[in-house]
């Protein structure tokens, strides 16, 4: 694979990996790059403006430095903007969860992540879309959305992955609203549910293997509903996930769809790729096939994808 002529970096200043951004610059320039475009932002919500500039500048490769929120906002812009889908994205997993990177086999090792940027495969990945915004890992509402909202910000910075465990414990006994779900126009679920998840990959928050058959390039979204409503039921559900398939739990239902319509009995927070969003009573999620290109390890199947060897 030839060295990209123009490489653009969009980096979250507060995130760290290896020797930091100074080492990233050294590793990139050591590859004989002709033109290096460099953008740093103080928070992920500032990234979209920089990514749009990168598209206009005609970058051959976009290196994104940060966690899942930073990656989500970057991929969202690339999927929306004309010409964005042609630019391969190299993820430097410098965040707390790094869920997309982990599902794609990208290690939390800066030198190895940079190596993948230059020698890995460019894989076309699907995205999900809710209210015009794209996600790469998952969307969640109910227990999951409330947990993410509480873990956001300072607590996540102080406790890292433990923040999800801490905040999760605060919500296990919350009241479960009535939920109606249609998959591809057909009624599928109508009952009380504590959590609704829509996944594009298999492993989600806390390292839980929630969607056993999910693949980010199969043209489908995986849908899961949890009906567990107390600590004991959640312990049983998570225990089942740990030793066998998620859908073997009596408190979990699974399916897949190209479109998912969710109606809630009360307004709840939802989340996209670990980032909290506003409260809502109704939303629809659609799959956007082959929306973006991402650098992944060469000739290595992605998590949950038995056909990753194909192009």
Automatic annotation (TrEMBL):
Alphabetized PANTHER family for the sequence: LIPID KINASE YEGS (PTHR12358:SF106), SPHINGOSINE KINASE (PTHR12358)
Matches recorded under NCBIfam families: YegS/Rv2252/BmrU family lipid kinase
A Pfam family annotated for this UniProt entry: YegS_C
Family matches, as SUPFAM superfamilies: NAD kinase/diacylglycerol kinase-like
DAGKc domain segment(s): 1-134
Keyword Lipid metabolism: yes
Cofactor: Mg(2+)
Coiled-coil spans in chain: none
UniProt family annotation: Belongs to the diacylglycerol/lipid kinase family.
Organism listed in the record: Actinoplanes campanulatus
PROSITE patterns noted in UniProt: DAGK
Top-level taxonomic group: Bacteria
Protein name: DAGKc domain-containing protein
């Amino acid at each position: 694979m030839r060295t990209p002529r123009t490489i653009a970096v969009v980096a979250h200043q507060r995130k760290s990996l290896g020797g930091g951004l100074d080492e990233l610059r050294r590793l990139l320039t050591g590859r004989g790059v002709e033109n290096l475009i460099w953008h740093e932002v103080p928070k992920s919500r500032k990234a979209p403006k920089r990514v749009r500039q990168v598209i206009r500048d005609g970058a051959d490769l976009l290196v994104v430095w940060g966690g899942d929120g930073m990656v989500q906002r970057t991929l969202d812009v690339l999927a929306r903007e004309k010409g964005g889908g042609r630019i391969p994205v190299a993820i430097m997993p410098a965040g707390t969860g790094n869920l997309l990177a982990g599902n794609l086999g990208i290690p939390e090792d800066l030198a190895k992540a940079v190596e993948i940027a230059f020698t890995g495969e460019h894989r076309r990945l699907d995205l999900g879309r809710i209210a015009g915004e794209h996600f790469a890992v998952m969307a969640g509402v109910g227990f999951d959305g409330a947990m993410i909202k509480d873990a956001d910000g300072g607590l996540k910075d102080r406790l890292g992955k433990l923040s999800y465990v801490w905040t999760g414990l605060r919500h296990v006994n919350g009241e479960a609203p009535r939920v109606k779900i249609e998959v591809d126009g057909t009624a599928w679920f109508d009952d009380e549910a504590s959590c609704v998840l829509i996944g594009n990959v298999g492993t989600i928050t806390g390292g839980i293997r929630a969607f056993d058959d999910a693949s980010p390039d199969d043209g489908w979204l995986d849908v899961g509903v949890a009906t567990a409503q107390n600590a004991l039921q959640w312990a049983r559900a998570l225990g089942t996930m740990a030793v066998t398939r998620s859908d073997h739990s009596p408190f979990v239902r699974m399916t897949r769809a190209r479109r998912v319509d969710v109606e809630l009995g009360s307004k709840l927070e939802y989340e996209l790729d670990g980032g909290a969003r506003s409260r809502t009573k109704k939303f629809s999620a659609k799959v956007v096939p082959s929306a973006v290109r991402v650098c992944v390890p060469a000739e290595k199947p992605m998590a949950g994808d038995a056909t990753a060897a194909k192009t």
